[in-house]
Design brief:
Elements: H1 25-30, E1 37-39, E2 42-44, E3 50-53, H2 56-59, H3 68-80, H4 92-104, E4 109-115, H5 118-135, E5 143-147, H6 156-161, H7 165-168, E6 178-181, H8 187-190, H9 206-214, E7 219-224, H10 240-251, E8 254-258, H11 272-276, E9 282-285, E10 297-302, H12 303-309, H13 329-344, H14 347-363, E11 371-377, E12 380-385, H15 394-407, E13 409-410, E14 412-414, E15 417-420, H16 428-444
Parallel strand pairs: 3-13, 5-6, 5-7, 7-8, 8-9
Antiparallel strand pairs: 1-2, 2-3, 4-10, 9-10, 11-12, 12-15, 14-15
Helix pairs in contact: 3-13, 4-13, 14-16, 15-16
Bound molecules: pyridoxal-5'-phosphate (PLP).
Length: 446
Amino acid sequence: MPPASGPSAAVPNDLESYWLPFTPNRAFKADPRLIARAKDMHYYTPDGRAVLDGTAGLWCTNAGHNRDPIVAAIQAQAAALDYAPAFQFAHPKAFELASRVAALAPKDLDHVFFCNSGSEAVDTALKIALAYHNVRSEGSRTRLIGRERGYHGVGFGGISVGGIVANRKFFGSLLAGVDHLPATYNRAEQAFSMGEPDWGAHLADDLERIVALHDASTIAAVIVEPMAGSTGVLPPPKGYLERLRAICDKYGLLLIFDEVITGFGRLGHAFAAERYGVVPDMITFAKGITSGAVPMGGVIVRKPIYDAFMRGPEHAVELFHGYTYSAHPLACAAGLATLDLYREEGLFERARKLEPVWADKAMGLKGLPNVLDIRTIGITAAIDLASRPDAVGRRAYDAMVHAFNDEGLVVRVTGETIALTPPLIVSEDQISEIFDKVAKTIKAVA
Ligand SMILES: Cc1ncc(COP(=O)(O)O)c(C=O)c1O
């Protein structure tokens, strides 16, 4: 049953003023896809039509939508403390959430810096990396290494280390001193792999070439998504992350895992670092920390990194970085309630158990018209479609529109890839429903 309609159900009478992000504005405004309410696995349009959420919002509502304990926690917090200054003052829930997050992270990743988004988390991590080398008198280490096809948000740091061409090419020369590892995807070698592909670990060795070119003494950090999400779901080849870790250790480079998508259960664990048994020096997170209910991001750092800054006079600021809304009280309240829900409902373990069911259903789409590849990992799948002649990206775009308007399903598309990544409360029946709807959609755009 849809929840009772409220004022938010009204259809706006002016679509013009709002400039939508990462959206073709003219096409959207000609045929808007409006969502007025949500509960658990479903959205509801202003006229009350239920739409199944195949993407956990934007990979963030891992506990499902409008969960009562999260809503109640936000409401109670808004009534008790709306805001306290984030600099020189703090509120108790910031400490509580930091220690809860640290407890979920592997090994000595035990200090948490809060911000408000994945993009801010990435810029924060890159800045910490540079400053860390600086405070240890290794200030020549300024280069940052990302990866082709990587997505690290939209800040200048994130697009500089990122590797998605459209996100970079309009924005000038970006950060200086950035280099990129090769992408890990090769369709000829990996097509229709379930989970981590067998081929591709050797691509990590390109880091040796980059070190040989620039010298380790100029390189601060390497940042990768353990599973590259936004570019179209590229699971890491078996052994790849281990090799990256080994090379970073050999040359004293910090390894940053951008877990903005993979954090909080998406791959069946609190963090992908745990799934792969590879401990990075920093983990960025956002999205699932509050199940999307309040913006929040952060960086978890290893103890030696935090300790390196804790020098000098005790009254002096150690890191000149932070946001007005770092550890915002509403975000902390939402985060604590979300982590409680993950634990009480065993949602990470649930994702782990459902992974084979999910992967089987996804691979069931093989053989449908225009399907070139299917990849699965955790509760995530990607389906690459063949482009229409002269209209790259059009088939997947049409699929997204068809899925919403005609099948009642939200899917995410990037380029010619359909990505599916529902809330972790998805039932087996709903998994079947998602892939049935996607099959109909693929046929409809053939
Ligand atoms: C790996 C990764 N890093 C960073 C970001 C940016 O997060 P935000 O959109 O919250 O700034 C994203 C968003 O999808 C992401 O997938």
